């Protein structure tokens, strides 16, 4: 069944214009056809098309199923965006496919990109959510100074991944607590500055390494997300 995204579907009973065009013009669906509509809040609605209009496709809701993210504890990644935006887009797509709750673009001392337009990244989030059959859309923040992230309260475990071997780190695979919400900070290609690392550690962030290989920024984020899911799956009781 074809899946569409409409955050206000319960109020409007109408697909957004872009989704309407894809539904009617591209897929050529018509009145009476059944589709799935997710609202990004965990709800998946089975709907029947009542007006096949390419700008305002109207539907009626037949049934609704709510589902929480299957990975349980929240996964939040704060990452310094790469200079090449294609790599950031790839990271956002892959983390969404696996499952992530929030992405915070970081502005650090050595950031290669100081500004970030999030419109295209939002579209990629939506597409990846639909493709991976999820009903919850990850939150994407605007560019945020690292000092704000360090100072903000977080009810869970906080980690900072960096390459500076002069400041002791621990293996993330051994430190990750899969039953607690996790905030993982990933620095730019030039790494976090020593001052940024010191401030994060003083604020309760745990110093971690993602392995022996030196990873690109976007690879490190995907690696961290994948490790969270793998450890969660390995710790689940057999049969789940």
Q: In what range is the share of β-strand residues? A: 15-25%
H and E string: EHHEEEEHEHEEHEEHEHEH
Net shape: elongated
Q: Percentage of helical residues?
A: 25-40%
Give the overall pLDDT as a whole number.
94
Kindly provide the radius of gyration, computed on alpha-carbon positions and rounded to a whole number of angstroms: 20 Å
What is the CATH topology assignment of the largest domain? Alpha/beta knot
Please name the CATH architecture of the largest domain.
3-Layer(aba) Sandwich
Q: Report the biggest beta sheet as strand number plus sense, adding barrel if it closes.
A: 8 strands, parallel
Q: Low-confidence parts, pLDDT < 50 over ≥5 residues?
A: none
Give me the number of helical elements.
Answer: 8
Q: Return the structural class.
A: alpha/beta
């Amino acid at each position: 069944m074809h899946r569409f995204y409409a955050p206000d579907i319960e109020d409007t009973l109408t697909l957004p214009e872009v989704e309407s065009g894809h539904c009617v013009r591209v897929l050529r669906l018509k009145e009476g056809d059944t589709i799935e509509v997710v609202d990004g809040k965990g709800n998946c609605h089975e709907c029947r098309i009542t007006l096949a209009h390419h700008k305002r496709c109207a539907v009626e809701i037949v049934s609704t199923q709510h589902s929480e993210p299957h990975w349980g504890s929240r996964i939040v990644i704060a990452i310094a965006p790469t200079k090449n935006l294609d790599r950031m887009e790839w990271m956002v797509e892959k983390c969404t496919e696996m499952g992530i709750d929030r992405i915070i673009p970081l502005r650090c001392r050595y950031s290669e990109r100081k500004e970030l337009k999030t419109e295209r990244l939002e579209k990629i989030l939506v597409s990846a959510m639909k493709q991976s059959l999820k009903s919850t859309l990850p939150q994407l923040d605007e560019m945020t100074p690292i000092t704000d992230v360090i100072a903000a309260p977080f009810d869970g475990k906080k980690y900072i991944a960096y390459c500076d071997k002069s400041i002791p780190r621990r293996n993330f695979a051994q430190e990750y607590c899969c039953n607690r919400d996790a905030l993982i900070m990933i620095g730019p290609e030039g790494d976090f500055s020593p001052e940024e690392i010191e401030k994060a550690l003083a604020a309760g962030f745990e110093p971690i390494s993602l392995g022996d290989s030196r990873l690109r920024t976007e690879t490190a984020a995907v690696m961290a997300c994948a490790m969270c899911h793998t450890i969660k799956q390995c710790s689940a009781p057999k049969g789940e």
